[in-house]
Amino acid sequence: MNVNFEQMCKELYQKEVARFEEADIDIKHDYIIHENIHSLDIFILIADLGSMAFIKYSFNKNNLEDVKRKEHIISPGSANVLKRLLTNE
User: Fold this and answer.
1) Which helix (H) or strand (E) element contains residue 25?
2) pTM summary value
């Protein structure tokens, strides 16, 4: 894996998580780096609300500084289903 790309992804992930932690919101979080398609997926479960934030970063293959960010919120109810599926409960 490209070390610069991996480091950039980790920094973006930590920045997103820090926003929630600074607001003292109880969260569970994880991320997936897709080097082959130059993207980063961040999953943040907001436990108190039963909601999930899905944040996707897409990078320009020729210029990693050219980044696009999209955020999707999965409403209460849906997060409970996802949590059950992910934890096999």
Assistant:
1) none
2) 0.79
- Identify the CA nearest to 69 among candidates 24, 2, 19: 19
Give the integer Cα–Cα distance in Å for 5 and 54.
Answer: 20
In angstroms, the Cα distances linking 22 to 14, 15, 32 are 12, 10, 23
Q: Per-residue DSSP letters for 34-67? A: EGGGTEEEEEEEETTTTEEEEEEEEEETTEEEEE
More confident residue, 59 or 82: 59
Cα torsion at 85, 72, 75, 86 (round to 10°)? 10
Best CA proximity match to 44, nearest among 58, 33, 34, 56: 56
